[in-house]
Amino acid sequence: MSLAVGRGTAALALAFLVVLSGCTSLSPAPPVVDAALGAPSADATDGDDGVVSAARGGTGSSAVPETRPADNPWRRAPIVVGIDAPADGRDYASFVESAVDYWRANASATAYDPAFVVVPNASTPDVTVSIVERIDACGDYDGTDAVGCAPLLDGDDPTAPSEPVSVVVAAGYDDQTTQTVLRHEFGHLLGLTHDDAGDFAVLSERIETTRLPEPDAADRETPFRERTVAVHVDLSNVSPDDRATYEAEIDHALSYYEAGADGVAPANLSFERVSDPTMADVTLSVSAFGDGDSGVRWRRTGVDADDDEALEWYTGGDLVVDAGLDPSLVDWYVGAGLGYLLAADERADLPPPFRDGDRSDDPAWRGVAGEATVERPIGNVTTPPENARISTAGPRVEP
């Protein structure tokens, strides 16, 4: 469903303020609330909009006469507003009603009388309010921090909208933020722009937002948004003679997790090897530690969506295996590192083979299957400060 309704339509952008780590900073790219993302979900349920049909004219002497303000882009009233929202227990209808009531109270300042009627399950709405997980683009704006999207309608355009106009609002924000975004968007439907923020603060180009608390990644069945994790393996520091062994060892560890890791790994997890490191969620490399320690080091990256300093989703990370390890130990250390990367916060949370340093209790981890190995001391699974579990390089928030 396009937001480009009529020749006078334009896409605008609403920015939000992001509060991170106790300090206030402006998002580098303003979030958008002014262009639609597409058709409502196919799962949306059409309901009985008979009351609205009667209000439009219907049949019988009690029908409310239809009005046609010259500057009303629909050329009729009332204007039916439907809602396509997830069944998450929130009363989105009341939020939309609040936005409509706000502009009814300020009708004298708008381009036309806001004769909106909210019918959440309307089968043929004039406006559809869609609550979506994420807004990837809004008209000409292609930023990643949009909180809403709607068209700026021009009542002077002689062409009435031929299909429902979309107002798109990002889910996951508290009631006050959601109501502010809706009021902002309905202001655009009424012909108001960000230049009108002096009269109406809700039309400000930037607003302060508050996220709803979300489950931490460690508490989710699957801490990654996607079940397929892209892995880039960098063996540039491995001698050509040993690379085949490293590849086999790494594949052994990855396959173990794809098979469930003895019930510890998320269901249906899979890994995809990629040659381009920029396309990877996880990078796995080999490097000489040079500080007396050995084993594997890891860093986890993710999304702190609700600013509680805990990651709500993991997006990937890095594993570095010590170049001084015997190649036959690589699978064990990669396996242990993956366990931490996939949610473990302490040794007891790892899959059984990695909970202690004794590989003799599981022959499958005594080198590549079928190969004789030389027993060597088990090194450490380390997480030095420079490779902290949670990335601290810049904001940990993604759209």
From TrEMBL:
Bias category Basic and acidic residues: which stretches? 352-364
Molecular function in Gene Ontology: metallopeptidase activity
PROSITE patterns reported for this sequence: PROKAR_LIPOPROTEIN
Q: Where is this region: Disordered?
A: 352-399
Q: What is this protein called?
A: Matrixin
